[in-house]
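User: Could you check the structure of this?
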Amino acid sequence: MTEPETPDVPETPDVPESADAHSARPKSTITPMRIALWVLVAGAGLFMVITGLVGVLVKAQ
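Assistant: Sure, the predicted structure tokens are below.
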């Protein structure tokens, strides 16, 4: 039998080569757009939780 062919993709290590690999990336800043997005996501989540609780309470009566 023949050996299965391996793809010609170079192997990359799971660990970065240097400890400074993450510090080279610029740190994200808090922008008004991010705040608006989090408020929107939190509002949608709160809406789902409240409507779920109301639905359970109405069903229990």
